[in-house]
Specification:
about 240 residues, alpha+beta, Ribonuclease iii, N-terminal Endonuclease Domain, Chain A, 2 domains, 3-stranded antiparallel sheet, two-stranded antiparallel sheet, 12 helices, about 15% strand
Length: about 240
């Protein structure tokens, strides 16, 4: 197992994630894919032998911690919104596509240690990249024994990259129009009607009407995108 690309870049990685480890093995383990180490294995490090595992256990821990922190974040950010909305919005933050964006933004995938014969080009899939981020979260918690250190990583890095890529994430992952329709139908409320008001070189302008009254509007490069934006703006304006 060649760990040199991780070991030689520990300072670089720590600067990227804005956390410096006391136990460097935890950081190294975050980048070891199961294709090169199934469970635990022995490696040579600093002239001695140490036992280290792959990143699956750290990923498991990080997944749970991320879910908790993201749940707390949306709960506090949207104090009047329903459980349906909170759950859906949280899922945008913790899903693998968002974590993939975090990984690539920090270039962490460059340090993934894997067996090319086993994975080949599959090493670059969204899940493997997302696993790195979750493993790093688990490693930060174990090293610091302090949830605030993980929250710093979440708010300063994960949430920043999430917000920077929100349009792309929403476009790829979430159907706000369908979500709004389902939510209103559960409550016996009429589904809004969407009307095209204007179309030009920049895109489409859509207005959503409920019982004949304008409730929101949206603009997008496509009609579908504009309707999705109108639905999201409607959700933001009402207390669900």
């Amino acid at each position: 197992m060649n760990l040199s690309k991780v070991i030689n870049n520990i300072d670089n990685i720590e600067n990227k994630i804005q956390y410096h480890f006391r136990d460097k093995l935890l950081l190294i383990q975050s980048f070891i894919h199961s294709s090169v180490c199934n469970g635990f294995c022995q490696i040579e490090l600093d002239g001695g032998s140490v036992v280290i595992g792959n990143n699956q256990r750290l990923e498991f821990l990080g997944d749970g911690i991320l879910d908790y922190i993201a749940s707390e974040y949306v709960y506090l950010k949207y104090p009047t919104f329903s459980e349906d909305f909170l759950s859906s919005y949280k899922s945008l933050i913790v899903n693998y596509y968002t974590l993939y964006k975090v990984c690539v933004s920090l270039s962490l995938q460059e340090f993934l240690v894997f067996n090319y014969e086993s994975l080949g080009r599959n090493s670059a899939n969204i899940k493997n990249y997302g696993d790195i981020v979750e493993a790093v979260i688990g490693a930060i918690y174990l090293d610091s024994q302090n949830m605030n250190c993980v929250k710093d990583f979440f708010y300063n890095i994960v949430l920043r990259i999430f917000n920077d890529n929100l349009d792309d994430i929403v476009e790829n992952l979430f159907d706000w129009k369908g979500f709004l329709q389902s939510l209103l139908q559960k409550r016996g409320i009429e589904v809004p009607k969407y009307s095209l008001i204007d179309k030009n070189q920049e895109g489409f302008y859509i207005v959503a009407y409920l019982n004949g009254v304008e409730v929101s509007s949206g603009f997008g490069r496509t009609k579908k995108e504009a309707e999705k934006q109108a639905a999201l703006n409607f959700i933001k304006k009402i207390e669900l």
